[in-house]
Amino acid sequence: MKREILKSGTPWEDIVGYSRAVKIGNLIEVAGTTAMDGDKVIGLGNAYEQAHFIFSKIEKCLEHFGCSMKDVVRTRMYVTDIRQWEEIGKAHGQFFIGINPVATMVEVSRLISPDLLVEIEITAIIPQ
């Protein structure tokens, strides 16, 4: 099957050896995505704003491959404070009400920057 990759242009992709997203056949995997916009954290101190920004970034990745959030079948959310689950869940719901992918949210001890409160990855399947 043909393998298509999407790069975001950050220097870390080549150093670490990863891509923003990979499409093989009708399967799309989007890597862990944070609220970074260049060197700036969007929604500093606000889990809802970070999650909303992240889902917007993921939506753009999917559009690159000709699909949309309606094709998402799984979300994985890594949060640094599980007490903020409702704010993160609110952002999730704004993108996925009526789509209802399976979802996982787990608390982690930290992310790559202490200013990041949430990291999200998704799996999408394009209907054939």
Round the mean pLDDT to the nearest integer and report it.
95
Strand runs, count: 8
Number of domains: 1
Distance between the termini: 15 Å
Classified by CATH, the class is: Alpha Beta
Key terms for this structure?
128 residues, 8 strands, two-stranded antiparallel ribbon, alpha+beta, 3 helices, 60s Ribosomal Protein L30, Chain: A
Short description:
It contains three helices and eight strands, in the order βαββββαβαββ. It is α+β, with helices and mostly antiparallel strands.
3D architecture notes:
The chain has about 130 residues and is α+β, with helices and mostly antiparallel strands. The chain has a single domain (about 5-125), classed as 2-Layer Sandwich (60s Ribosomal Protein L30, Chain: A), CATH 3.30.1330.40. About 30% of the residues lie in helices and about 30% in strands. It contains three helices and eight strands. It has helices at about 10-15, 45-65, 85-95, and strands at about 5, 20-25, 25-35, 35, 40, 70-80, 100-105, 120-125. The strands form two sheets. It has a six-stranded mixed sheet with strand order 1-2-3-8-6-7, with helices on one face. The protein has a two-stranded antiparallel sheet with strand order 4-5. β2 and β3 form a beta hairpin. α2 packs parallel to α3 (about 85-95). The longest helix has 18 residues, at about 45-65. The radius of gyration is 14 Å and the shape is globular. The mean pLDDT is about 95.
